[in-house]
Write a structure and sequence with these properties.
The chain is mostly helical. The protein has helices at 2-32, 34-63, 66-83, 100-136, 146-167, 171-194, 198-211, 214-218, 221-228, 234-243, 246-273, 275-312, 317-352, 363-377, 388-411, 416-447. The chain has one domain.
């Protein structure tokens, strides 16, 4: 009896030692790789937010029918397009300067541009809100057009402050805000749904989820910026704006065209097939992306921080970093996306309710494109390498092909699923082209 007890104790001790040793090795391995460390910190937090989002979705789909969900998809699509121009892409420059003083002035420049554009947007919506609503199909929030202005300012400010946090590699704070955003947005939508606020409630919940976290990200830098305004150097801002002029000149139109091409499906589908179909489409898209998006988003931002630092030192490690990152993304993302696409038509009615039984029909056509988007869009940094004009040309080409694809689908009166398949195929080919361009750009920089 004692011998058996001793063996059990000995086994437990050995197992504990092995576990401690494995944990030490993993911790050491992660700490030696800045990219991996950032991914683990941000990825774990974003994973929690995404998991909570998945938990809340079955509740939301029972409170809001597909048609109402479709109105949110149109709202977020239009808002995503507007956010791209919110600071003329100067927020992308925040991690680049070696001196913090210059980065602070770029932050002020970004915030100033955001404030001016927000005022212009409020005026435009007040004067021409009715006319624009008819064109872009957002009559569903009449007369609350000011929600676009509020969402535009809050989302853009959070984006600016996020890039500032990336400069100092404050991944933990970003992670914390994402978790809070996920919980706040979902809970707000549920409460407003129970109170039967419809599209207005769903959109308000979305805005709440986007703006929560601004105070946390800005609590250290915003007071500092306020003090700097008392000794503000206008000439320095002009000098920095000119130095990084490629971002508003090339990166902004490139990003705008890029975002338009991403949001075209939602806007086209809503215009051709109605809010019911676009609601089904948007749910399928989000559910396929969710299992891997936390890694993509985290790796994208960590890759920005790490690649910017490597690029500042003109190290030849930038090519290795790019290839290693894309390989990891493909090996992780492809199996999850394809597996989700196969099972989604079977499980969607069970999880989200009978009203959503047709949502899974878009999963297979979308999965091909999502793999390319997951791998390539996450690591696309042509503007960092100085090839902003390549980025612009690629985005113009992609958008033109996407519009042409939807035009053909409309002319030949294709049903929703074949229409999405045409779009997915075009996007996949263009992502392959983008990957080749990034490799060529990095090699060109290394030759210099």
């Amino acid at each position: 009896m004692n011998r058996g007890s001793d063996k059990a104790k000995h086994f437990i001790v050995r197992l504990t030692r092995y576990g401690n040793s494995l944990r030490t090795k993993i911790t050491s391995w992660i700490s030696k790789d800045p990219l991996l460390k950032g991914i683990v910190i941000m990825g774990s937090g974003t994973a929690v937010a995404q998991i909570l989002g998945i938990v809340f979705v079955p509740i939301l789909t029972r409170l809001y029918p597909p048609a109402v969900y479709g109105t949110l998809a149109v709202f977020t699509s239009l808002l995503s397009i507007l956010i791209v121009i919110s600071s003329f892409r100067y927020e992308l420059t925040l991690p680049l300067p070696e001196k913090d003083d210059e980065a602070e002035y770029l932050l002020i420049l970004s915030f100033f541009i955001l404030c001016i554009l927000t005022i212009i947007l409020f005026v435009v919506l007040t004067v021409w809100g009715e006319f624009l609503a008819g064109i872009f199909h957002f009559e569903f929030i009449k007369p609350y057009y000011w929600l676009f202005g509020l969402g535009f300012f809050g989302s853009s400010l959070y984006e600016i402050l996020t890039f500032w946090a990336l400069r100092s590699k404050d991944y933990m704070t970003i992670t914390h805000t994402r978790i809070v955003q996920g919980i706040s947005g979902s809970v707000s939508k549920i409460i407003l749904g129970i109170l039967s606020f419809g599209s207005f409630g769903l959109i308000c919940g979305e805005i709440i989820g986007r703006v929560v976290g601004i105070g946390t990200l800005g609590r250290t830098i915003l007071p500092k910026i306020w003090l700097k305004l008392h000794d503000f150097d206008v000439n320095k801002v002009k000098t920095l704006a000119y130095r990084y002029r490629k971002f508003p000149t090339f990166s902004m139109p490139a990003s705008l065209i890029n975002e338009i091409s991403l949001q075209v499906p939602t806007l086209f589908i809503s215009g051709i097939f109605g809010f019911q179909v676009v609601g089904l489409f948007s749910l399928t898209y989000s559910m396929l992306v969710l299992p891997v998006s936390f890694v993509a988003s985290s790796m994208s931002q960590v890759f920005i921080g790490e690649s910017s630092e490597v690029f500042r030192h003109r190290s030849d490690e930038i090519l290795t970093l790019y290839q290693k990152t894309t390989k990891k993304l493909f090996l992780f993302g492809a199996p999850l996306i394809f597996a989700g696409a196969v099972i989604s038509p079977l499980i969607f009615p069970l999880i989200f309710g009978s009203a959503w039984k047709d949502a899974g029909m878009f999963s297979l056509p979308l999965s091909i494109m999502l793999v390319g988007q997951f791998v390539v869009a996450t690591t696309d940094r042509l503007e960092l390498y100085g090839f902003n004009h390549w980025e612009l040309a690629w985005n113009i080409s992609r958008t033109a092909f996407v519009f042409f694809g939807f035009y053909l689908s409309y002319v030949f009166a294709l049903p929703p699923v074949p229409t999405v398949l045409v779009y997915s195929s075009i996007m996949t080919v263009m992502y392959a082209v983008n990957y080749i361009l990034n490799i060529k750009a990095i090699k060109h920089v290394l030759k210099k």
